[in-house]
Structure formats: C-alpha cells, structure tokens
Amino acid sequence: MTITSNLSLKQAQQLDAEDPLRHFRDEFIIPTKADLKSKTLSRPGKSIQEFLQQWAIKGVYGHFVDHDDAILPSFLHGDDAAAKLLAPIVGANVQEVSAMETLTANLHLLMASFYQPTKEKHKIILEGKAFPSDHYAVYSQIRHHGFDPDDAMILITPNGDKATMTTEHILSIIDKHAAETAFILLPGIQYYTGQLLDIATITAHAHSHNIPICWDLAHAVGNVELSLHNWNVDCAAWCTYKYLNAGPGAIAGLFVHEKHGTVTEATDGSGGLLYRPRLSGWWGGDKGVRFEMGPHFKPRPGAAGFQVGNTSALAIAGLLPALKIFNRTSMAEIRKKSMRITQYLQDLLLEPTGDGQPLPYKILTPSDPEARGAQLSVKLDMGLLDHVLEGLEDAGVVIDERKPDVIRVAPAPIYNSYEDCWKFAQIFRPLAFKAKSRS
Ligand SMILES: Cc1ncc(COP(=O)(O)O)c(C=O)c1O
C-alpha cells in the first residue's frame, strides 16, 4: 500500500519559494517539540515589556503620556489604535469597529441593543450547531426578556444528510419564520465544518424582512476577506485569538454599522441625545468629557460607543503587534495564498493510495474554495481519533480536535508553509491507516 505522497517535498519547497508572504513566518515563534514539552518559559515579548515600562515609569499618567520611542500609544488611546488596525481586516470604517471585551460579552452587548423583541416578534434564528457560547448567550437573552427559549430559538440544521447548510436552505428558514423573528445570529465560518457562509446574500435577505442580523466572525476574521460595511451587516463580533494570533482570551472585536452608530442632538430643544439604545459604561463615553465624571452618558459615535469598562491596556499591548502584521499585507493577499495552500493540503490528504484502499477519513469542509477559509475539518473513521492524536502529539504536530472523530487542520497563510502541509500529510496519513488497521 502506498500512503506516502506523489506530491514531492521538492514541489512543496518550490511553492514556498514562490510565496510572496513567506517572510512573515520569521515574525512568528513556531513552538518546537522541545518547547511543547518544556516546563519553563524563555522568550518574553517586546510589546508587553513596553506596557510594563509605561506602567513602571508613568503609573496612572500612562493614560495620557505618549513616549517618543514607544510602539504603543498612551493607555487612553489603545482602543483607537486597535480599531484603526482592525478596520481593514474586516472591511469596515475605523469608527465601525472596536477592540473590547470577549466575543461572548460582545454578543450580549450587541443583543442588548439589536434584539428588541415584542410579543409577536420575539424569536431568534441561529444555527443548530452553533458554538455553545453563542447558543447559551441567545438562550439567556430570550429568557432575560421573559420568553421561552424552547419556542423562541429557531435552529437551522443542515438540510438532508449533509454536514453543511446551503444558502437557499438558510434563506428558506428565514422566510418561514420572518413574521415572528426579531434577530438573527449566524457564524461567518462555521467552527466545526469550516463552511464559509454567504454573508452578503444572507444579510440582504434578512434586511428584506426587516430583521437585524449579527455575525459571529471568530473563525472568519483574519481568515477570509470581509466587507462588513459594504455588505451592510448590522453588527458582528469576533475573537482575536484564532487567525489573528493575539493569544488565548485576548481582547475581542465588535462591529456596528455606521448607520446604527450615530449620535445626534435631539431636535426638540431638550439638549438630549439620540442614539441607539445599549448597555452603557463610561468607556463608551466621549473621550473629551470622560474624566469630568458627569452623570449623563454621551456616547462616542460608532462602535467605540458600545464599550463599557476601561479597556485593558495590557490586553491592547498583546493585540497591536498581532494586528500590525496583518496591516503589512492585505486580506486579499492572505486570501490568495490561503486558497492555494488549503487546496494543496486537501490534494495531499485526498491523494489516493497506490492500491486503491479507501481513505480512513473524509473532509467535511466544502471542497469549493469560495465556500471555506483555511480550515479543513477531517472526520476520521469512528474509533481512530485517540490513536491518531497520540501519534500527532509524539511528532510535535499541534492540532485541534473535536470529539468524537474530527480534527481541524488550518494552514494559516500568514505563517504556514507548503512544506508544513507536506510534512503534516506524511505524518498524518500513515497514522490514520495504522489506526485503521488496528481497529
Ligand atoms: C465561534 C465561536 N463563538 C464564540 C466563542 C467564544 O469566544 P469567547 O470565549 O472569546 O467569548 C468561540 C471561541 O472559541 C468561537 O469559536
């Protein structure tokens, strides 16, 4: 049985030599096998050290003081620096994005503003296999408004025996429940299957029924090209610790379309302000008067006005270097490589064996490059996962698993090479066949 690849190492190295993004790999620390086993840390990060220095030599004045040689802004303006770098990554105006909170907290903040149920129209459409946190957040919002989640959660499941959902199917569910639906929450890329949804079409369809729609972009941001502003998306939230590399629990992102972020003076002469209702806190308030400590909330226009508490300057220090890397290229360039390298990985994984033996796994992710990002979800034959994971760990491969039988492999274009993919296939395929032969 031939399970090694006909696609040669030389060919992978040639593809790497032609890759215009290859130099970015040098900006990353790829854990070695020894690192993964190491009990000690040895490489402190520069940006975090700088934050500590700001704090050490300025204390609370660090909110306002800029240093000539600093790569970080003063604490007060870290949020704006992050928004500026986030905007091109998600296809938004700077005012439409904010670096804040965690993804789940941001979903709650967005629902507090955009989910405004009435007795007749109080349902939320989401997908049946939504990331659990999204499911819990929606469930609790519905209860918070006094409705019954069993009745009010409309779950979209794939049609037929497919792992993925067609756009037509999603649109038909929206049509069916539109009259009683107050809000839609969907993932840009489905975390389990890696399916990229047609955000523009689904958003337009939701709007044709006057339903606000929110996108969970955890797996889409930094992975695929997004045009949140032009697609007229109402609101979105994402974390920065997947393709954006900012580290576990890193500060998250929030998008509110400019049409929803306006702050205007009331025309009735009352001196009051008109703005979208929200759960407010002082960090969403106008910077010019924030430290005057007045009792009246005057929100900053745009997504920044949805901030609540003081944004962690330490968290921003961890985020900015991650975003700067993306701003030195473009999502168009990243996506170009992503499509190529993901296809290459798929070719390696699906290469037939010499003797026609069936593969002990299949790929759940759509094979159409337009309907996926960099992730391939590989579903192993039942019972093989533990053996395969053990072997991968021994070989120093860092991989994500979803029990009982799926691994998610993502050639992140900003730092993964074609050679990485080639090596992965050389390790993974024999392991899968070996596990199969034992089962
Ligand atoms: C699709 C999706 N939604 C929500 C979350 C929760 O994110 P957080 O823990 O930042 O709230 C995650 C985390 O992995 C996720 O993948």
Automatic annotation (TrEMBL):
<feature type="binding site">
    <location>
        <position position="282"/>
    </location>
    <ligand>
        <name>pyridoxal 5'-phosphate</name>
    </ligand>
</feature>
<dbReference type="InterPro" id="IPR015421">
    <property type="entry name" value="PyrdxlP-dep_Trfase_major"/>
</dbReference>
<comment type="function">
    <text>Catalyzes the cleavage of L-kynurenine (L-Kyn) and L-3-hydroxykynurenine (L-3OHKyn) into anthranilic acid (AA) and 3-hydroxyanthranilic acid (3-OHAA), respectively.</text>
</comment>
<feature type="binding site">
    <location>
        <position position="103"/>
    </location>
    <ligand>
        <name>pyridoxal 5'-phosphate</name>
    </ligand>
</feature>
<dbReference type="InterPro" id="IPR010111">
    <property type="entry name" value="Kynureninase"/>
</dbReference>
<comment type="subunit">
    <text>Homodimer.</text>
</comment>
<dbReference type="GO" id="GO:0019805">
    <property type="term" value="P:quinolinate biosynthetic process"/>
</dbReference>
<protein>
    <recommendedName>
        <fullName>Kynureninase</fullName>
        <ecNumber>3.7.1.3</ecNumber>
    </recommendedName>
</protein>
<dbReference type="GO" id="GO:0043420">
    <property type="term" value="P:anthranilate metabolic process"/>
</dbReference>
<dbReference type="Pfam" id="PF22580">
    <property type="entry name" value="KYNU_C"/>
</dbReference>
<dbReference type="GO" id="GO:0034354">
    <property type="term" value="P:'de novo' NAD+ biosynthetic process from L-tryptophan"/>
</dbReference>
<dbReference type="GO" id="GO:0019441">
    <property type="term" value="P:L-tryptophan catabolic process to kynurenine"/>
</dbReference>
<comment type="pathway">
    <text>Cofactor biosynthesis; NAD(+) biosynthesis; quinolinate from L-kynurenine: step 2/3.</text>
</comment>
<feature type="binding site">
    <location>
        <position position="216"/>
    </location>
    <ligand>
        <name>pyridoxal 5'-phosphate</name>
    </ligand>
</feature>
<dbReference type="InterPro" id="IPR015424">
    <property type="entry name" value="PyrdxlP-dep_Trfase"/>
</dbReference>
<dbReference type="GO" id="GO:0005737">
    <property type="term" value="C:cytoplasm"/>
</dbReference>
<dbReference type="InterPro" id="IPR015422">
    <property type="entry name" value="PyrdxlP-dep_Trfase_small"/>
</dbReference>
<keyword id="KW-0663">Pyridoxal phosphate</keyword>
<comment type="pathway">
    <text>Amino-acid degradation; L-kynurenine degradation; L-alanine and anthranilate from L-kynurenine: step 1/1.</text>
</comment>
<dbReference type="GO" id="GO:0097053">
    <property type="term" value="P:L-kynurenine catabolic process"/>
</dbReference>
<feature type="modified residue" description="N6-(pyridoxal phosphate)lysine">
    <location>
        <position position="242"/>
    </location>
</feature>
<feature type="binding site">
    <location>
        <position position="219"/>
    </location>
    <ligand>
        <name>pyridoxal 5'-phosphate</name>
    </ligand>
</feature>
<keyword id="KW-0662">Pyridine nucleotide biosynthesis</keyword>
<dbReference type="GO" id="GO:0030170">
    <property type="term" value="F:pyridoxal phosphate binding"/>
</dbReference>
<feature type="binding site">
    <location>
        <position position="104"/>
    </location>
    <ligand>
        <name>pyridoxal 5'-phosphate</name>
    </ligand>
</feature>
<feature type="binding site">
    <location>
        <position position="310"/>
    </location>
    <ligand>
        <name>pyridoxal 5'-phosphate</name>
    </ligand>
</feature>
<keyword id="KW-0963">Cytoplasm</keyword>
<comment type="similarity">
    <text>Belongs to the kynureninase family.</text>
</comment>
<feature type="binding site">
    <location>
        <begin position="131"/>
        <end position="134"/>
    </location>
    <ligand>
        <name>pyridoxal 5'-phosphate</name>
    </ligand>
</feature>
<dbReference type="GO" id="GO:0030429">
    <property type="term" value="F:kynureninase activity"/>
</dbReference>
<feature type="binding site">
    <location>
        <position position="241"/>
    </location>
    <ligand>
        <name>pyridoxal 5'-phosphate</name>
    </ligand>
</feature>
<keyword id="KW-0378">Hydrolase</keyword>
